[in-house]
Automatic annotation (TrEMBL):
Pfam families: ABC_tran (PF00005). Gene3D superfamilies: P-loop containing nucleotide triphosphate hydrolases (3.40.50.300). It comes from Thermus parvatiensis. This is Branched-chain amino acid ABC transport ATP-binding protein. One of its GO terms (biological process) is L-amino acid transport.
Length: 241
């Protein structure tokens, strides 16, 4: 579904954020991309979503392939048409708009009937969001905002969902809930999921495979179970929690 090959990314021509990263995400697979602050995780998300230029970044070398097609320099609309939706870090939504309005904005390219059905599906999945559908999104809790950005992403009916740090700033209980939701979505919809996290334990509980990034390079790659059971990997690469 998604294949990243020897990707090098620079910002402003000088800051090397990714230094030859390769990564595969298969059909229906869930993969975690872990690593400390500044490792390059968000840069990879931006690269596969066609969003680097927005951040003064560009691909220096390597390839991104999506559904077998060359997508390295494709713009976000082209990438979304191919079926990849990325949720960037920090729960990007319109704070002064309500959940209904945010969903309408996210689905503005859909035919009206598909938008209506999509919104009904989102509200059925997240009843709490339905209760607060007419309140300003900025007043929702972190967990509710995360559900809203997930709902906005689902409206576009992605085949590949990339989520950057959904657990950020959430209580352990809510982190667990978000992980359960992502896992359920992946299974029910047959999505391929690339989960970018600093919270290794939470991410490892729902993924098949894992990549660990450090300073723009992949320093570990393997089965999630094996990584979880490998004390060295957990402590050395991911830190004790
Ligand atoms: P975090 O979890 O803090 O977001 P990350 O693993 O996602 O970290 P990136 O945000 O991809 O890491 O950052 C990788 C490197 O690129 C860092 O050195 C960072 O300072 C740099 N960087 C990221 N965005 C930009 C930008 N827009 N302009 C210049 N440098 C940037």
């Amino acid at each position: 579904m998604l294949s990243v090959e020897n990707l090098k990314v620079v910002y402003r021509g000088v800051i090397l954020a990714l230094d030859g990263v390769s990564l595969e995400l298969g059909d229906g697979e869930a993969v975690a991309l872990l690593g400390p602050n500044g490792a390059g995780k968000s840069s990879l998300v931006r690269a596969v979503a066609g969003l680097l230029p927005k951040f003064e970044g560009r691909v220096l070398d390597g390839h991104v392939r999506l559904m077998g097609q060359e997508a390295t320099h494709m713009d976000p609309v082209g990438i979304s048409r191919l079926g990849l939706t990325a949720i960037l870090e920090g729960r990007p939504l319109f704070r002064y708009l309500t959940p209904v309005e945010n969903l309408m904005a996210a689905g503005h390219r859909l035919p009206p009937k598909a938008l209506k059905e999509g919104m009904e599906e989102v509200f059925a999945r997240f009843p709490r969001l339905y209760e607060r559908r007419h309140e300003q999104a900025g007043y929702l809790s972190g967990g509710e905002q995360q559900m809203l950005v997930l709902g906005m992403a689902l409206l576009t009916r992605p085949k590949v969902l990339v989520v950057d740090e959904p657990s950020l700033g959430l209580s352990p209980k809510l982190v667990e809930e978000v992980m359960r939701t992502l896992d359920a979505l992946r299974r029910e919809k047959g999505l391929s999921l690339l989960l970018v996290e600093q919270n290794a334990r939470a991410a490892l509980s729902i993924v098949d495979r894992v990549y660990v990034l450090e300073r723009g390079r992949v320093v570990f790659e393997g089965d999630a179970k094996a990584a979880q059971e490998d004390q060295d990997v957990m402590e050395f690469y991911l830190g004790k929690e």
